Model the fold of this input.
Amino acid sequence: MNKPQRNPDIVWRVEKRRQAEVMKALENGEDADDSGTVILLLSGMMHQLNLVGGLIWQQCDGEQTLSGIAEELAKEFSVETAEVEADVAEFVADLAERGWLING
Done:
């Protein structure tokens, strides 16, 4: 999946206030890995993505490549791109397997 795209059947929204709270908590060295920042509604079920998952999801617009997503994530967290590439690929593959992403 070179340019992942969100499944158009999924209704979603970014919980901006929650996302800002999680970013602040992380900056303060707190653990906020399990805090949902993006809500997905699919087949009457609600799913939450944590901060990193939500940031990846938002970039899955059918235009951005996996490498580009990894680069953006690396910039956001001030790490080397190589440190996040495998995680991004694994997460995208998991969402694709669920049918939440399609190949753009």
Remarks:
- The CA atoms of residues 25 and 32 lie 7 Å apart.
- Helices lie at 16-27, 51-59, 66-77, 81-98.
